[in-house]
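Obj.: predict assembly geometry.
Materials: sequence records (below).
Method: joint structure prediction, all chains together.
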Amino acid sequence: MIRQSDKGNLKKLGANIKKLREAKNLSLRELSYACDIDNSKISKIEKGQINITFTTILQLAKALEISPSELLMTEYD
Amino acid sequence: MIRQSDKGNLKKLGANIKKLREAKNLSLRELSYACDIDNSKISKIEKGQINITFTTILQLAKALEISPSELLMTEYD
DNA sequence: ATAATTGCGGTCTAATAAGACCGCAGTTGA
DNA sequence: TCAACTGCGGTCTTATTAGACCGCAATTAT
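Observations (raw structure tokens):
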């Protein structure tokens, strides 16, 4: 595993999440509270360090008040 | 883990993937070959039995020739 | 009939996400 | 000056995905 092209895609996803979080003026801890995901984990997600599951995507989307598909709205390789 | 509401969402995702696969007239093994995911795993995904990761979503979307966000184009709880 | 295809369930190992927690260094602002 | 907040990195355990493989029962050709 740990395909090389995946790393870039994970970073893109993370960057998108960070952008959306900042657009709502939320700190990591605030978003953490809103979606019940540890703030350090969100930090890792935004830096593309972990490969989150579908349900984690749903949690984040809900807290960011957007649709799950909007969360993935980016170009991937 | 294994939140109860997640089960329903996983089934919805699976149903959507199955619909998309059938729309392209692909068997499990054909899709399996196209995205390099074991056919038995795809079967489990379609039945909502596993919580796939982001990269698996990308693989499926690519093989189904749709965008990742389109793959999630459904309503979730 | 019979051979191939298909969906699906189960098995086993290794890798890793989930989840919870700690603490630091660098802002920010009272 | 000091307290609060912020991003972020690391740790530890447990649950689960990933990945590869086997085989059956039912369906679908040939």
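Conclusions so far: Residues 27 and 61 of chain B are 16 Å apart (CA to CA).
To do: check interface contacts against the pulldown list.
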